[in-house]
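Section: Multi-chain targets

For targets with more than one molecule, the full set of components is provided together so that the structure can be written out for the assembly as a whole rather than chain by chain. Components appear in the order listed by the source. The example entry contains four components.
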Amino acid sequence: MLHKHKHNQTCCPVHVTFPEQEPISAEKAAELEDLFKILANDTRLRLLHTLARVEEMCVCDIANAVDMTPQAISNQLQRLSDRGIVATRRSGNQIYYRVVDECVVGLLQKAMCLLDDSEKLAKV
Amino acid sequence: MLHKHKHNQTCCPVHVTFPEQEPISAEKAAELEDLFKILANDTRLRLLHTLARVEEMCVCDIANAVDMTPQAISNQLQRLSDRGIVATRRSGNQIYYRVVDECVVGLLQKAMCLLDDSEKLAKV
DNA sequence: CAACTATTACACAAATCAGTTTAATAGTGT
DNA sequence: ACACTATTAAACTGATTTGTGTAATAGTTG
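Its structure, encoded as tokens over all components, is:
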């Protein structure tokens, strides 16, 4: 039952080790917590995934895309903007959001891939 | 100011796109949220990082390593165990924890790498 | 300026969460 | 059986978070 790794996965490494001997610093752990926290919300994840597939999109269009109110969307876009993950551009009445931190999207992509892997494993 | 990507980073892809045209499903977003949530806590991150560097470790040793009470540690280890990220083995009085989900550790490693990248960028 | 649209700001209520405290459980040694 | 250690369970508190409702702001159009 412990033979979890079939070596036919697309994301998971066979074995991960941390080369450094030192434990992670409390400061770095806090930074990591912040990073994961911003991704630990299904609304923000859907916003990010939506924005990652287009050049830019205005709030009401995003709200329609995820079927939520513009207020709720604006709340979360603000948080993504505060972290520098997305940025805005005003054009008339609309405010257009776009992804500027590709790294975070890369992390999201990796996480989605991991989930797919475990689903595959679960089906065996 | 928008030229963020210097192409000398170690983790961040230059540009990430999601090949699929469909938006992420609410169900998958919820799964992702759960995955990131478990990582969105500095205590759990320190536990994971500690465990990823050894074969296995008992609760009191982990508690010492991160300088917290065994009760607090046990709380979080339980949550990691519930998700199948770590597993336990009893030996006498001690209960030894070990990492069994290397994928999650891989995600942690990638996140740490991203943070290092942004620090490097910030210093420029 | 007035009416309208798009977005954000703010206060709020419900839910979730982390660490503490206290108590219970499991195993060891005498 | 008893004392002891290691770990977990359960209840509790304070803090954080999310979407909602309402109001405010910015821009457009007539």
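Confidence is low (pLDDT under 50) at residues 1-6 of chain B.
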